[in-house]
């Protein structure tokens, strides 16, 4: 891990060639956020055209899940996040419905919107409570996907017989279950064709000297992705 370093030494297999005319400030958001979110939809969950999707958490990964669901042809993409600006931004990436979880019960609202529950629910924030919400907000036979990394001390309470009788599926994914040498060129091809919005993911630019301010923005839920320029 060479985060924020000016130079990094890696194995050849860890470097993915991209076209020379690809702006690095665009390509850089793929590495984790876009690859993880889009991959969670296309590679792990394998969302079908016409499916309904719930996305909980709208940081860079959550917004990427929204884009992945749009690419998969989901008929309804419901998003939940306590930050109003992120809910508003999600509409531009393909979200059809937005929930403020601080004032509205997510499970009840998803059931109201879909009638039976979502086909797929994604925890993009890494919280045990969101995984439990997803379990109750999905239909019988639905799938819950853990995408965000929850703290080690976080737990999830399950009732095995209910999970068994409803045939719901709990899955996890790391880096979008992606094969990066294949995935990164595919994502860039989708971007070049206008089907994937990478520029819109970048909501701020800062020099490396302002890295502390960028981290503060992250903790405060400001923006989606900040690009740091290294001199």
Brief synopsis:
This protein is α/β, with parallel strands linked by helices and 231 residues long.
Would you give an account of this structure?
- Helix content is 39%, strand content 19%.
- The chain is built from 9 helices and 8 strands.
- The strands form 2 sheets. Strands 3-2-1-4-5-6 form a 6-stranded parallel sheet, sandwiched between helices. A two-stranded parallel sheet has the order 7-8.
- The mean pLDDT is 94.
Question: What is the tally of helical segments?
Answer: 9
Query: What oligomerization state is this entry in?
Result: single chain
Distance between the termini: 19 Å
Radius of gyration: 18 Å
Supply the helix-strand structural class: alpha/beta
Report the sheet with the most strands, covering strand number, pairing sense and barrel closure.
Answer: 6 strands, parallel
Strand content: 15-25%
Task: Tell me roughly what share of residues is in helical segments.
Answer: 25-40%
In N-to-C order, the SSE pattern is HHEHEHEHEHEHEHEHE
Strand order of the largest sheet: 3-2-1-4-5-6
| Overall average pLDDT | 94
Count every beta strand, where a strand is a DSSP E run of 2 or more residues. 8
- Taking pLDDT < 50 over at least 5 consecutive residues as the criterion, the unreliable ranges are none
Shape: globular
């Amino acid at each position: 891990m060479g985060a924020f370093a000016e130079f990094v030494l890696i194995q050849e297999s860890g470097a993915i060639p991209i076209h020379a005319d690809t702006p690095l400030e665009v390509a850089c958001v793929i590495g984790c956020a876009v690859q993880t979110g889009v991959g969670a939809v296309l590679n792990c969950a394998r969302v079908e055209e016409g499916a309904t999707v719930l996305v909980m958490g709208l940081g860079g990964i959550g917004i990427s899940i929204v884009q992945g669901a749009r690419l998969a042809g989901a008929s309804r993409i419901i998003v939940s996040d306590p930050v109003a600006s992120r809910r508003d931004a999600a509409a531009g990436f393909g979200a059809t419905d937005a929930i403020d979880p601080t004032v509205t019960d997510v499970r009840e609202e998803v059931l109201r919107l879909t009638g039976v529950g979502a086909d797929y629910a994604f925890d993009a924030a890494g919280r045990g409570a969101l995984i439990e919400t997803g379990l109750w907000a999905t239909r019988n036979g639905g799938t819950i996907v853990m995408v965000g990394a929850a703290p080690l001390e976080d737990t999830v309470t399950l009732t095995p017989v209910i999970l068994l009788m409803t045939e719901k599926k709990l899955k996890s994914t790391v880096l979008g279950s992606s094969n990066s040498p294949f995935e990164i060129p595919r994502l860039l091809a989708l971007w070049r064709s206008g089907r994937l919005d990478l520029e819109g993911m970048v909501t701020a630019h800062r020099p490396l000297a302002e890295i502390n301010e960028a981290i503060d923005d992250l903790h405060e839920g400001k923006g989606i992705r900040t690009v740091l320029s290294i001199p």
